[in-house]
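To the structural biology subgroup,

Please find below the input and predicted structure for Voltage-dependent calcium channel subunit alpha-2/delta-3, which we are adding to the shared reference set this quarter. The sequence is reproduced verbatim from the submission form. If anyone notices a discrepancy with their own records, reply to this email rather than editing the shared folder directly, so we keep one authoritative version.
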Amino acid sequence: LGIHGYAFAITNNGYILTHPDLRPLYGDGKKRRKPNYSSVDLSEVEWEDKDDTLRNAMVNRKTGTFSMEVTKSVDKGKRVLVLHNDYYYTDIKGTPFSLGVALSRGHGKYFFRGNVTVEEGLHDLEHPDVALADEWTYCNTDEHPEHRYLSQIEAIKIYLSGQEPRLHCDKELIQEVLFDAVVTAPLEAYWTSLVLNKSENSDKGVEIAYLGTRTGLSRINLFVVPDELTNQDFLTAEDKEGVFNADHFPLWYKRAAEQVPGTFIYSLPFSSGSENRSVVLASTAIQLLDERKSPIAAVTSQATCSEAAAVNYTEPYDLGQA
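Predicted structure (tokenized):
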């Protein structure tokens, strides 16, 4: 459903069946849970709906639309994004439940498709700098025991070969991720040339450059050897906010998508105040057109040691055009 979009469902009493904000709350620096998760009302999570317009319409099992400006907390409540959401809702036939979908206005309503051959798509998908969101379901590898050892890329290859009819995959998503693999392939050679032409001041500047697309594909290039990274957990499974997770896009992707097209957003971790060295992130969204309604094609970022940040920002790296 896009960078900020999500689906949710409620009962005819207004209680939540499923919602991305149905999660542990944070208080006094410690996690605390609501005593009874079955009694969380829609008004507690969609709290900007002060007049309960959305809630009442869904409780009354109506079909319609509703819009409002919302503040979306990210990074475990440490940062806030201001979005304008359009809500679409209807009743679920044969049940006492109602379904809602929220889409962020602007780029959130648009996407693009492109066609490439399976051969060239698979060729570029297998490059060593390419990764797919492990927690995203391109292919359902849980349905049959013999598929559970497969990575998503391995499952995609088997699916496209037609050798395993029992392997069920998202055909449209796979076509889109193959397209992303092909059109971003030149970045590998471009970033490699930057590494080879790096100045003698190799300890100053960018440590990692990476690009993520809306299909969960990412390309990562190290400008230093792994042991020299300021943050060893950066873009690893331990970095939950930095990688594509099952239920959301990475934090750097979300924040860059809400900036003025063509501009960068710079971020420091909140823990940097007590550290001598930290990572500064510079991220920007890549759009097809220079306007708010253009779909976000990808987000590209660079990570720099904070000790070298002033040097890097004075003469920023050209990360290339997509």
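Summary notes: Helices lie at 42-45, 53-59, 118-125, 152-161, 171-183, 186-196, 251-257, 309-314. The CA atoms of residues 157 and 163 lie 10 Å apart.

Regards,
Lab coordination
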